[in-house]
Specification:
Chain lengths: 442, 73
Amino acid sequence: MQPGLSFEQAPPISVPYRFFLTAPLFGIAAGLFLLWQGPAAIASRWSPLSLALTHLLAVGFMLMAMCGAMLQVLPVAAGANIWRPLLVTRLTHAGLTLGTLLLVAGFLAEWPLLFKLAVAFLTVSLLFFALAVLLALLRTPAVGPTIVSLRIAVVGLFVTVILGATLATAFGWHLSLPLTHLTHVHAAWGLGGWSLLLVAGVGYFVVPMFQLTPSYPAWLSRSYAWALFCLLLAWSLAWLPDPRPQALQTLLACLAALLPLAFAVVTLRLQGRRRRKMVEPTLLFWRLGAGSLIAAMAVLLLQQLLPAVDAYVGTPFVIGTLLIVGVFMPLISGMLYKIMPFLNWLHLQKTGKPGLVVPNIRDMIPEARMFMQFRLHLAALVLLLAAVALPVLVYPAGLALAASCLWLERNLVTGTRNFIRFGEELKAAVARERQPERPAAA
Amino acid sequence: MGEARVIDGRAMAPPEPMEKTLSALQTLPDGEALTLLLRGKPFPLYAILKTRGFSHDTQTRPDGTVEVRIWKG
């Protein structure tokens, strides 16, 4: 495969943008859901309300944005082409959107038919997506830690989807399965085996490139994905024997928690050594994400080692909030603010012709508005964490979360509109150049 | 001028190396080559070069630097 072929076969800009513009809408829905349900939404990890909230964010926001980014990152970063990108996009986007809505409705209504429909939409679309992406990743001639991490991450997505489908099938058909154990394993693969490995794979590529830092050290980038995958696998299998080897499982969980902790510390240290010392929004989002990752893994370690922390009812909520609202949502926001202006610029290059200047990437989305969304999101995270101790704070937390996602949506809509506007201006300029000079009308 | 035909993009954030390259290619004389130094392969640039009638050759140096030579034709 010739590297030069990559861009012609790369998807049109509408492929990632439909995912990017849909994701914040689920974030807004999650914020409004908190306002609607109040403290009941976070009372227990196992309540249907809490599961509905988790999936609005983990699937509706996170997975939606991650799928869109993956479809775009592969051709640009790795020269890896997706088979029939438009078909994969339409199926994945429709399946994710409808599947998330049905799943959330299933948790709220506790109606088996909704779970059955959600399983169909989510499983078919996500397995199709994972297969298409894995094929592209296996066929690319590119090598390096980004490709290895992304390949393992997609395997993690397969595991997550299969386990999630099993759980939803159990709800839909009233099967008797060890639901608690399966839920732990499903969540660990979704957040660790897929999301954290995707962050690592993308991080190895974008942190040095966009923030002009040194590269990630080889000891980390070569071993992190494999080590986390193997530890997760061993930890998952340790649920099977009866009696369960509890001490071994605790050891595996602690080792698995140390790896993302190391990744986050290294990321912060690399960013401290960046060549341009200016503070821009994506840097702040990455710092918040890395800081939250350190905090989440510290709480996870305490949960494993201290029975009092493990017994505290708020511990799973703190870990989940730190990971979803503290790590993944900020990292996704920060990355979208790099990806969208860059893609705008890149696709406008194709519209124009040599000699015509494409607008600067800084003109695509105003930076001040990105900073505003960062502040709103930070407020949402702090308020949500404080709501564990003071549940009434869930109301301002919901408001802040909805506002942060609304701001993100507004910023992405502005980026999309600017792409259309600049594209029309460039087309008009090209048309003007093609027209022969006419004498002025008498 | 040989030295003016090298763009070191290793300390630039995207898309600055591509902007500088596309701008420099507009004045590249026939028979001369432009060298671009980067930290990774510029897959999107290859496609733009193809549509604008440029050829390219990419080598990776032992230190990981990617060296892209670009010429007309």
